[in-house]
Amino acid sequence: MSKSALLPTYARSELVFERGQGAYLFTASGERYLDFASGVAVTALGHAHPHLVKALNEQSEKLWHVSNLHRIPGQERLAARLCQETFADYVFFANSGAEAVEGAMKVARRYHFKQGEPERYRFVTFEGAFHGRTLATIAAGGQPKHLEGFGPPVEGFDHVAAGDIGAVDAVIGEETAGVMIEPIMGEGGMREVSWPFLRDLRALCDETGVLLLLDEVQSGMGRTGRLFAHEWAGITPDVMATAKGLGGGFPAGACLATEKVGAAMTPGSHGSTFGGNPLAMAVGNAVLDVVLAPGFLDHVAAMGLRLKQRLAGLKDEHDGVIEEVRGQGLMLGLKCKVPNQALLQSLAAQRLLTVQAGDNVVRLLPPLIVSETEIDEACAKIDAACVALETGAAATA
Q1: Checking phi first, is residue 298 left (phi over 0); if not, alpha (psi -120 to 50) or beta?
Q2: Residues with Cβ < 8 Å from 131, sequence gap 6 or more?
Q3: Contact by Cβ (8 Å): 123, 239
Q4: SS3 130
């Protein structure tokens, strides 16, 4: 194969997919793969979902782009719907999770500036977190593997261990603007933050006057069985970033904020050329149509429970391969006793697509429309992949 003209930032597999349907992807030669990666939690409604296809096709024949210099009805509708279903009073649309997180941090800093406290610019973040690939968001995550080679990290982040409310309290000072956390650390190894800890964070932020920012880029849009994962804890943030499943495969991200915080943003304080364009908003509204339909989130919760129970049984059968099952809903991970890349490749050889994560974890992120039959099929493939590793027969896909 000739040298690729792409910047070599990914160690890509040799798989090339021609089309997708529901929970499956197909190569040009017709090989079928069960997709439990969902483009890293993006194709939340599977591939070629008819409602999304219809919405995108209809919009594509009308208008693609006008910029945010003009009103965009689909954008205003999606913002209103998100506010109706969440804590938020304002929404800013972007193109990705990293942009949504950057927007959330800017909103928080701007709020304190408007309050007459411009010195409040720092954020408390958590060890093992992942918030994106921009210079600011890799600094927020603080992981050496992401920071290496890019010069001094962007200043303004204090990292503490997740779950230690005393450590958070100790680091909050007069320069602290907010505390930012993922309810489930996806890239960091599907590590769950306990709901009591989130409640403690909310109380501590209220007590100290700093803002609570949630990164629900991966855990949002129904992935855990609620529209957003923080709902399980019974708390609300001041600002939240989401993306991935919001567009169902079309690039879309959003920063949501309360009235108190969002009102600090004024014309010219932030912007995006492509964010909230008519195509993305048509698909985003179509995604919300499906996710908010009666019974849909109940289905996600039921399928998540079925998958987690089946995985627990596989862990017992293959305790030399699988150490722990993590996560909630359809955002699950297998903590491995073997190198996670070995299990990932063994699963691919069984034509099951999964995603690598930190802490030696393999992520399982099936589309939210996954069926019982497809979950059972995936578990049979995981069983076979583990047997292949145990017997030394695993093949590289």
Answers
A1: alpha
A2: 97, 98, 101, 125, 137, 138, 140, 141, 180, 182, 215, 217
A3: no
A4: coil
What DSSP string runs through 178-240? EEEE-SEETTTTSEEPPHHHHHHHHHHHHHHTPEEEEE-TTTTTTTTSSSSGGGGGT---SEE
- Asked if 361 contacts 326 with a C-beta cutoff of 8 angstroms, the reply is yes
- Where is 123: in which H helix or E strand? strand 122-126
Structure tokens at 194: 């306990």
Query: Cα 281 vs. chain centroid, distance in angstroms?
Result: 19
Start-end of H helices in 319-394:
340-349, 372-391
Could you tell me the two tokens for 108? 């928080």
The three-point CA angle 185-187-192 to 5° equals 20
User: Six-digit token pair at 335?
Assistant: 């903590």
Cβ neighbours of residue 134 under 8 Å, at least 6 residues apart? Answer: 98, 99, 102
This prediction's pTM: 0.95
CA angle, 118 then 162 then 113, to 5° = 10
pLDDT in tens, the chain (397 residues): 578 999 999 889 999 999 999 999 999 999 999 999 999 999 999 999 999 999 999 999 999 999 999 999 999 999 999 999 999 999 999 999 999 999 999 999 999 999 999 999 999 999 999 999 999 999 999 999 999 999 999 999 999 998 999 999 999 999 999 999 999 999 888 998 999 999 999 999 999 999 999 999 999 999 999 999 999 999 999 999 999 999 999 999 999 999 999 999 999 999 999 999 999 999 999 999 999 999 999 999 999 999 999 999 999 999 999 999 999 999 999 999 999 999 999 999 999 999 999 999 999 999 999 999 999 999 999 999 999 999 986 544 4
Say if CB 244 and CB 363 are below 8 A apart: no
